[in-house]
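User: Need the bound-state model for zinc ion:
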Amino acid sequence: MAWHFGRKKMNMPDGLWMRCDECGKTIYKKDVEDSLRVCPECGFHLSIDSAQRIDMTLDPATFQELFADLAPQDPLNFSDREGYKDRLKRYSEMTGLKDAIVTGTGNIEGWKVAFGVLDTRFMMGSLGSVMGEKICRLAELAIRERIPLILVCGSGGARMQEGVVALMQMVKTSEAFAACQDTGVATITILTDPTTGGTTASFATEADVIIAEPGALIGFTGPRVIEETIKQKLPKGFQRSEFMLEHGLVDMVVPRSEMRKILAELIEYLQAEGAPPRAARPEGEESAKPAGELIGPQTEGQRGEVEQQ
Ligand SMILES: [Zn+2]
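Assistant: Bound-state model below.
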């Protein structure tokens, strides 16, 4: 075969092949899409966008988006290499989103849930004023309707372009999760690769049940910075889901293919008093395979631009 598997793609038909972020192997895109974007070579759970996550987690055609009109302001008139307003515009055009979270309601095997997904394509899923507000509104809705609050996390941390306003969202979202817990409404977070910074230090790790996808990087500061600071080599698998499970930060590591089934079991177990009854489950559904065809996001360069702390 005349392929050259170097750093750059050579003679590779556009759109047919992609590189795994974890093992670096070149993999057939269709195989990846057919397996919920899990690498067929190493089993790594590749990043997916919010629309794909909604498709693979919720019952078909049950998602109703809420609070979609909220868009970030630029309270600090912030500029580094690029003005914050321009950056927001660029990411918005690239993703079709106004900010890094999509929120709404939907069903999981018939159970109604308040559901939010952070989208790492939008400024690395960073936590700013809009994400904070949307999570709070979602929590209020969950309490009002007595339905579980489920958030899929993937984030580089607090959005530095919003300064202290972003940091305040850690308090605000923590309060929202506490309010759910005070009123008996279940909270579940799903930590995906990567979940770091202020997101990990607030709502992502404050749920009743904290689930992680296999192999996800979960931590506050990245391993390289820690190594440089403490001048020590870190143990193998440090800050990955399995390590975090062993050390008590997460409750379960669940592969993508089993996520919907496990969520449904948890919801049934954790139902709040006065919760709405379970709706009919989608007919003929045997697995968590999404109804529509998955179209892979732009993975190349996705990890390159880390703009948060
Ligand atoms: Zn791989």
